[in-house]
Each structure stands twice: as C-alpha cells, then as structure tokens.
Design goal:
3 helices; 34% strand; Aminopeptidase; 7-stranded mixed β-sheet
Amino acid sequence: MAYVTAESLQTLKQINALIYPTDHIQHESLFRNVLEIPELTCIAFFDCFPCGYIICEKVHNRDGSSHLSIVTIGVTPDRRGRGIGGALLDRAIKTAKKMADVKFLTAVVPANDDFAERLFKRQQFKQCGSLTEEYGAYQGHIFSKSTGN
C-alpha cells in the first residue's frame, strides 16, 4: 500500500474509473483534497498492480474533536475477496488512532451493498443510522467505529 502523491493521483483516478465506471463518484471534486493530508488516501497493490483505494477526510466536530469520514473505498472486481478492502480499512483505522483528536470513524454504506456492509461489520463498525429522504435518491446506512482516543 502507498499513500497518494501528486505523481500517483492519476493512478487513483484510473482505479476509480475501473471500480465505478458510471457512478456519481467520478466527479473531480472527489480528488480535490486528497493531497492535503497524504495519509488519509491510500492505494492498494496486488502483484505490483494498483487494485484498490480508500479516501478519508478529517472532519472537525462541534466539541473540538475530529473524526475520519471514509469518503469512498473500492477494490477492482478482479481482486475482490482477497482481503484488500479489509487491509485498506485497517490502514484507515490505524491512521485515525494515531491522530489524538480523532475520536471515531464514519462511513456511509449504500443500501443493498451487502458486501460492503459485511466488510465494515468485520472491522467492528456499528450501524448507527440511515440516510433519510433529505439525501435524495442516495440511500444507505451510516456506520461508526470508535478509535478509543
């Protein structure tokens, strides 16, 4: 695994296009801030080929603490089921625990994505809510995990 750099940003975009070829997640805004805190975006490799990624964002809470929001995570279809998604989540969890002000991690898992839901549950994330109608057509479940900080 490697953190995203200016040199590898195009690789990140290419992996994203493989994983989400027609999805809304293609928007350039997804990649706008990935270089600000490099350890929050990571590319996974399998047999030396890029095959997955995770993008997190540090969010400041009202009480002065922070949390990491997992903006997106994905693994190319040909490499799924090999522990890559779990390794990416492990990296995000370890990164969050190193940041003293980060109290928890969050993620929104799309409705009917049983594979992603199982992945988060295996990493001891707890479902703590669902998206309401105010989010429009996008439906999903909110997951959270404490860092212990």
